[in-house]
Specification:
alpha/beta; Zinc Finger, Delta Prime, domain 3; six-stranded parallel sheet; elongated
Length: 345
Amino acid sequence: MAAPRSSSRGGAKPTKISQVSWREPRPAPLVLVSGPEEICAERAIAGLRDYLRAEDPALEVSDVRADDYAPGTLLAMASPSLFGEPRLVRISGVEKCSDAFLQEAVSYLDQPQEGATIVLRHTGASVRGKKLLDALRAGTGGGIEIACPAIKRDGDRVDFAAGEFRTAKKRIAPAALRALVSAFADDLTELAAACQQLIGDVEGDISEDVVTKYYGGRVEVSAFVVADTAIAGRYGEALIALRHALASGADPVPMVAAFAMKLRTMARVAGNREPSRQLAQRLGMKDWQVDRARRDLSGWNERSLGMAVQATARADAEVKGAARDPIFALERMVTVIATRQPFGE
């Protein structure tokens, strides 16, 4: 049975637009899908379509480009048809819309058509269409906003991946989640696809071994194996892991980034005695990230941690062109971190 339809199509207009999660979209006369994260926007718009189609399979779906707009198109597609089927009009490129579209869209807000859901996609790449967005966000037209902000920080990617499994009611071990996110640190679309593959293919809970089996060949996973081993002080194993990763085609740049990510987390947690949950909330991290950082800090002190951070910063510059031999730069970094001593001592 389809979920009940939003009542926002009738009654008094809200004084401020409602904010709705892209994971749980719902229809309204006007839906602003804002922000640069395209995969989240695609999910939200597809979710709206599925919601409306579940209510009425006769849903009419139309697509309009705001930057290549023929006058009169919006009203023509939103107006009731002969048999009164519900309409979904998806409008892309609002951030580069034409004057004709902007004028008609602003006018449309004052009298949305019954049975029509208008989706306005604005990436935020420009201020074009600001008059329309301001009116929408003030509540004109009884709309809602689905924000899709950029997902760039490590914690944001972890939240994204965790949400994929939570939505699918699938359990994934914290270490497995971290390994998966690390494996696709540079591409959210690939991370989303990897999550869906594991959700679809794996029966039961997802362990770190499962992630390694599927994606162990990814450079970033190998990088974190090296980082974990070096930070634990296992010098010989760390050098072997480093050489294995390099022989498998690992790039020195993401290798250093893996070290930097772990050391940065350790530095933020070091010396803090707050409970894990409280500290995690204050730092914008997950409980397990704080717990892992505290385990990683065993045997470290302020001097050795500072030296490791400096060694990683130097290696980062060298593998990006400041030195002729990036492999030597990596080995020196691993040596300093694993031995917790200046290089050569």
